[in-house]
Q: What sequence folds into this?
């Protein structure tokens, strides 16, 4: 083995702490980078990746069984341009009623307007009979549970309304099916799947029977190409046999729009992770090589050329880094499994693994960072005059001059502070090693920024969700639909004013209002819009104004962005709606944050057009400390003469937001760990440099506890400053990302959704940097305290 | 008459705007001489040694060692020069504490490309001669100061350098260990090794050197030939 080869080997084996430190940092950096790059790739085109993985259907066709046979449909697979097809699958379109645990997702399912609406009835669904999730086209992924194996089982499609496992779906006049699985079809070919043999039983009165065929074409990149394929298929079938067809491009457009809102959030975290990984690896490697400057001087004095020294130190850094990179690659891929599964839910896409090229490119990239950093640091040291390199480490920073003067001034100031001498010595330490202190500062600032961003993002998302749900009531009274007349003959039902007065008189009531809904037609819109008419003040129930104000009197209304965009109106305009054929003029006085196409006004505004309109729901907020269950029981007793029942309101976080918050927590923890590891590593290097000085202190009488205090004090100031720097950076990133998310999702956000940082969060966040610093300092402080004085004094 | 091993002509070394560490020093050292460089702290002794070893460059003047103009060498050439022509013994040993004693001694030979077997043979011989063969597999941290300096001397001699430079070789040693090193240097000189010894120890200079120069504030003040006792 050559001389420098032996130097490399001994450096790796004998300097165990440094070797382990470099390996750990490399592993953490690769883990964070694999995750970050994986998230970026998954965010690039989630729909396309998932669609390709499932061999999605470029065209899904429904055919009339009265007009075409199965054999003829099967023969359509040979139509020009068709590369592969699946089917025919029997299918039926019908409406289910859901019962069972958490039926309807646990949220209050508001009935659709109209006498035929029922509180538990679900929208019409296309149910397809398939023996299994696989096939040549549309290879459906099971997200939860399993595929049906019996005639009384059903798997539902993953969608916005979650139907949990175990819920029973009943077809009117037909069998009850138990949900045993949740599946994802990127092509959105069905709302649910059963075994083919179960279809006959589901063909109940009112249900529409058909066949489904799925096609993939050689060319399907544009609407014209898909249309050409559709025409080719239709040409092989009898006229009018095709009752419906759906292009994958329409599915893709909606999916991309839905997923777009989450892209900025994941991209921000991915970039943070990659930046931190490179930062930490770079500073640790640079620090380790710089700490070996005197060693470099000795080697040069003995005859090693600068180039040889550089090669040796690059190799010495790469050996443990390579091991760490392998560990980090495995860890990153393992950690990515649940993270990308959650990302898939966000994007409405299939769960994917880390792309193979990410698994190769990321560790190679980190090793390149290690090599470049080690090369640059060792080249700098190798270019020093040998005599200067030999004298490094016997004093302060190699920069000398002003840096030494600063260190001396800090030392003198620290000596005057009203703190113990060890604490003063520690507090002055960063000035003796300004470059290393700056590296620690950067790591802490990056970690604090990550936590600040994550908490702000979580706060914004909760406010958005609260405003979307408009469901903060503690207790709800629901009036069955047949007791909620909108127009026509029949009892008007309970007087809203009397009910609200009863509620107000109930002990524990903070606020209450009644909610009625009615459809209204608007000129130029094909479908009616929902008008929400309030009796009482509902503004406490999650309504957030984007602009303008809440309505204050008859004739005024507020609306969401979707309604305003649909009718082409702005705040200040007057819109005329037709309620039961009667025109109602609504002056829009404000834009409310709302995810639907509804308009909100007072019941007195609609009363002239809909005199019999009554609330179908009363929503109640309780005073602090009032038990919702007890209150509901008391109120029910009071309202018993009116036949009304009060129930505690069950609210549930949107599953997607749970996913986002879970992802946020995971990524933040990882970034904080990387930051703390960076602090730990640089402290370890610093303590190795100072082991002789520490031994002198101890020989002069410094106790282990005082040694710990000195080490902790050396990072306290840096931690506080790092937190003060990281806090505004994290807030700035949050102020960039949240509006970007909203813009991508086509949402207008009130400022209050972005400005979520209050004193209660700012103070602990400021101290977050200190916490990260202390986390990284604990172990090294203990080691310093346990240094054997006699051995350390003999260190050169 | 053999060519001199060392030739300095008008050598000065300045650091910044302060007084020069060395000022207009001219010196010639013949092969086989043992030169002691004496002077108080800050007189320029170590600076002179660094210039001779190619560890530093003069601000003015020329430096020739073993026929090579050292002051114009680049870092790589300077390193190659040292591994062939110069052996260095430092005051604080400068051993690599993560290499064994044997590996420390072998290192200059390996850097010079000497074949493994020949290098090991030479190293073993030196360790035996210096009485530290039993420590071959030990790490420097376990050795006493005197033993470490012996290792440093062995390392300096492994490539049979034309010039041995020793910077305060007894400065970090107790009197017994220092006496050991004094005797060792004397034996080396007796065997024909050219030595330049930087020291403030007059006793060491008298014991080891055949010639003494004195520096004061960077100036060469005296140059006397002495008789080694």
A:
């Amino acid at each position: 083995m050559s001389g420098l080869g032996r130097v490399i080997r001994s450096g790796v084996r004998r300097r165990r702490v440094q070797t382990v430190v470099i390996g750990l940092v490399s592993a953490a950096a690769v883990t964070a980078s694999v995750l970050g790059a994986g998230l970026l790739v998954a965010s690039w085109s989630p729909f396309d990746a998932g669609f390709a993985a499932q061999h999605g259907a470029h065209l899904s066709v429904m055919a009339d069984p009265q007009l075409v046979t199965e054999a003829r449909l099967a023969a359509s697979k040979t139509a020009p341009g068709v590369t592969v097809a699946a089917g025919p699958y029997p299918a039926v379109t019908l409406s289910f009623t859901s019962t069972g645990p958490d039926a309807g997702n646990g949220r209050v399912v508001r009935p659709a307007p109209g006498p035929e609406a029922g509180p538990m009835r679900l929208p019409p669904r296309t149910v397809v009979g398939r023996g299994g999730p696989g096939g040549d086209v549309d290879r459906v992924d099971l997200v939860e549970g399993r595929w049906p194996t019996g005639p009384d089982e059903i798997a539902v499609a993953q969608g916005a309304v979650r139907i949990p496992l175990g819920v029973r779906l009943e077809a009117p006049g037909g069998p009850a099916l138990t949900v045993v699985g949740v599946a994802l079809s990127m092509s959105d070919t069905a709302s649910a799947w059963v075994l083919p043999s179960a279809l006959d039983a589901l063909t109940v009165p009112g249900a529409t029977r058909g066949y489904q065929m799925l096609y993939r074409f050689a060319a399907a990149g544009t609407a014209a190409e898909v249309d050409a394929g559709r025409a080719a298929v239709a040409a092989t079938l009898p006229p009018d046999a095709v009752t419906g067809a759906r292009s994958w491009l329409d599915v893709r457009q909606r999916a991309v729009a839905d997923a777009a809102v989450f892209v900025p959030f994941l991209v921000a975290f991915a970039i943070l992770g990659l930046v931190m990984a490179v930062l930490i690896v770079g500073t640790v490697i640079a620090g380790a090589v710089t700490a070996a400057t005197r060693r470099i001087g000795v080697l040069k004095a003995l005859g090693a050329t600068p180039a040889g020294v550089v090669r040796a130190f690059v190799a010495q850094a790469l050996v443990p880094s390579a091991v760490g990179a392998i560990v980090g690659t495995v860890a990153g891929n393992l950690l990515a499994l649940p993270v990308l599964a959650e990302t898939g839910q966000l994007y409405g896409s299939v769960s994917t693994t880390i792309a193979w090229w990410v698994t190769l490119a990321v560790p190679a990239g980190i090793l390149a960072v290690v090599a470049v950093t080690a090369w640059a640091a060792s080249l700098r040291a190798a270019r020093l005059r040998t005599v200067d390199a030999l004298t490094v480490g016997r004093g302060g920073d190699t920069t000398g001059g002003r840096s030494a003067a600063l260190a001396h001034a800090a030392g003198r100031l620290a000596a005057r502070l009203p703190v113990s001498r060890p604490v003063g010595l520690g507090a002055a330490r960063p000035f003796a090693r300004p470059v290393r202190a700056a590296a620690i500062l950067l790591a802490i600032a990056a970690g604090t920024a990550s936590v600040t961003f994550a908490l702000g993002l979580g706060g914004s998302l909760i406010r958005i969700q609260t405003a979307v749900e408009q469901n903060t009531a503690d207790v709800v009274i629901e009036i069955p639909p047949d007791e909620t007349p909108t127009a026509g003959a029949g009892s008007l039902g309970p007087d809203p004013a009397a009910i609200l007065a009863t509620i107000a008189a109930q002990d524990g009531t903070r606020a209450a209002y009644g909610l009625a809904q009615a459809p209204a037609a608007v000129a130029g819109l094909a479908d009616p819009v929902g008008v929400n008419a309030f009796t009482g003040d509902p503004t406490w129930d999650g309504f957030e104004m984007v602009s303008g104000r809440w309505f204050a009197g008859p004739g005024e209304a507020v609306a969401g962005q979707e309604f305003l965009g649909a009718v082409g109106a702005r705040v200040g305009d007057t819109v005329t709606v037709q309620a039961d054929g009667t025109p109602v003029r609504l002056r829009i006085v404000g834009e409310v944050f709302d995810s639907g196409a509804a308009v909100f006004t007072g019941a007195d505004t609609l009363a002239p057009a809909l005199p019999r309109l009554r609330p179908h729901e009363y929503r109640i907020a309780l005073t602090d400390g009032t038990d919702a269950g007890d209150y509901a029981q008391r109120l029910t007793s009071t309202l018993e003469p009116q036949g009304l029942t009060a129930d505690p309101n069950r609210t549930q976080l949107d599953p997607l937001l749970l996913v986002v918050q879970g992802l946020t927590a995971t990524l933040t923890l990882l970034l904080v760990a990387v930051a703390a590891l960076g602090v730990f590593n640089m402290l370890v290097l610093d303590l190795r440099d100072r082991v002789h000085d520490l031994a002198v202190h101890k020989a002069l009488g410094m106790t282990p506890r005082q040694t710990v205090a000195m080490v902790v004090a050396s990072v306290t100031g840096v931690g506080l400053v790092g937190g003060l720097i990281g806090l505004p950076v994290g807030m700035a990133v949050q102020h960039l990302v949240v509006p970007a998310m909203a813009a991508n999702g086509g949402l207008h956000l009130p400022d209050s959704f972005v400005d979520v940082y209050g004193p209660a969060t700012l103070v602990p966040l400021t101290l977050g940097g200190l916490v990260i610093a202390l986390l990284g300092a604990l172990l090294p402080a203990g080691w310093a305290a346990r240094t054997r004085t006699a051995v350390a004094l003999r260190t050169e | 008459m053999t060519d001199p091993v060392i030739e300095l002509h008008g050598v000065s070394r300045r650091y910044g705007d302060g007084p020069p560490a060395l000022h207009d020093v001219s010196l010639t050292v013949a092969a086989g001489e043992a030169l002691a460089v004496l002077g108080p702290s800050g007189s320029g002794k170590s600076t002179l040694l660094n210039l001779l070893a190619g560890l530093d460059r003069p601000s003015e003047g020329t430096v020739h060692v073993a026929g090579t103009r050292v002051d114009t060498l680049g870092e790589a050439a300077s390193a190659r020069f040292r591994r062939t022509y110069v052996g260095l013994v430092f005051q604080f040993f400068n051993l690599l504490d993560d290499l064994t004693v044997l590996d420390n001694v072998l290192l200059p030979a390996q850097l010079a490309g000497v074949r493994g077997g020949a290098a090991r043979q030479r190293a073993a011989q030196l360790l035996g001669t210096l009485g530290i063969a039993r420590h071959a597999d030990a790490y420097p941290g376990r050795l006493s100061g005197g033993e470490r300096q012996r290792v440093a001397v062995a390392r300096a001699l492994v490539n049979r350098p034309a010039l041995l430079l020793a910077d305060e070789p007894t400065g970090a040693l107790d009197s017994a260990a220092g006496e050991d090193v004094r005797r060792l240097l004397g034996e080396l000189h007796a065997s024909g090794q050219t030595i330049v010894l930087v020291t403030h120890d007059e006793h060491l200079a008298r014991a080891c050197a055949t010639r003494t120069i004195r520096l004061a504030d960077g100036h060469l003040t005296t140059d006397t030939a002495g008789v080694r006792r």
About this structure: Chain A has 26 helices and 21 strands.
